[in-house]
Write a structure and sequence with these properties.
The chain has 10 helices and no strands. By secondary structure, the protein is mostly helical.
Length: about 325
């Protein structure tokens, strides 16, 4: 009897499942269609929210602030010839990869100086400090305002040059492979820039954009070499300009430059390896040897002190 009831329940379940399968399939198709439409609307409506926080908030704020700085710093500067210090600062900013003029950088530095001095005076006013600590705090803030921008610029220039020297051999090898594959120099640079947006590729892509805007290639290349101030990159630019003037194949120039850069990188690595023992000598003498002296001579010194103290000398 139980078996009959169980088989009847199973049969009824299968009948209901067969009857509702078509309805369920239609509902599933409708749900998938609605979900796809909702997803498309969500993607279209949330396209702005799908971007990163820096792209949505920080970058517009920075661009707005930069435009205000340019308008403010540029007032009264039209028609005036830049001084030698401004030209030197402009060149340093270009070498550091900072897209600001000398007037804009000076304006930002002056504004930051006033802000720091205001914070310093507020601290001197409300903190319970004596006269000497207040003067020391003011001196430190003034030193930071004077020294920090120069040190930061010098550090940016040094870091950028080191990055160019480090990445240039690899970029040259990739250019050689791309040119051997049949691409032109500009097309190879554009293709590599899509994959790698390092310092070297940014500079090379900048020259490509200048050429596309009508600037002669040799002028754009020389401006890049002058802006970066790296000897290896300057040699590469000189070789390219000479090859263009003499009609030499770009492929052979790139191959020779890649070999030269790889050799120079190997020489730099060997030079650093030879300097390593000399650099290790100072911490060894200053940190390791005193500990060894304490371990080796400490017991002997204690014995001598004990012997002489028993003899009445101490």
């Amino acid at each position: 009897m139980k078996l009959v009831v169980l088989m009847s329940a199973i049969a009824v379940f299968l009948l209901f499942a067969a009857a509702l399968s078509g309805v369920g399939a239609a509902m599933d198709r409708r749900e998938r269609r609605l979900a796809s439409i909702a997803g498309e609307k969500s993607d279209f409506g949330d396209e702005e929210l799908g971007r990163s926080f820096s792209d949505r908030v920080l970058r517009p704020v920075y661009e707005r602030f930069a435009s205000v700085v340019r308008r403010t710093a540029g007032n009264g500067q039209n028609g005036r010839r830049a001084s030698k210090s401004e030209q030197k600062l402009e060149k340093t900013l270009r070498s550091a990869g900072i897209g600001m003029s000398a007037q804009e950088f000076t304006f930002v530095k002056t504004g930051a100086t006033f802000v720091l001095l205001g914070v310093c005076f507020l601290a001197m006013r409300f903190l319970p400090l004596e006269l000497f600590p207040k003067l020391m705090l003011l001196s430190v803030v003034l030193a930071i305002c004077i020294i920090a921008p120069k040190y930061w610029l010098a550090s940016r220039v040094k870091t950028r040059k080191e990055a160019i020297i480090r990445d240039l051999p690899d970029v040259m090898d990739l250019l050689v492979v791309s040119v051997e594959a049949g691409l032109g120099l500009d097309a190879a640079i554009t293709r590599l820039y899509e994959k790698d947006k390092g310092v070297v590729m940014q500079e090379l892509m900048g020259t490509v954009r200048d050429v596309q805007m009508g600037l002669p290639r040799r002028v754009s290349m020389r401006e890049m070499a002058d802006r970066c101030g790296v000897k290896e990159l300057t040699s590469f630019v000189t070789a390219l300009i000479q090859a263009e003037q003499l009609g030499v194949s770009i492929k052979s120039v790139l191959i020779s430059q890649a070999d030269r850069l790889r050799t120079q990188r190997l020489q730099r690595v060997r030079e650093k390896a030879q300097k390593a023992p000399v650099k290790m000598l100072l911490p060894m003498v200053g940190l390791i040897f005193p500990v060894l002296f304490i371990i080796l001579l400490g017991p002997a010194v204690m014995n001598l002190v004990e012997v002489f103290s028993n003899g009445g000398l101490f």
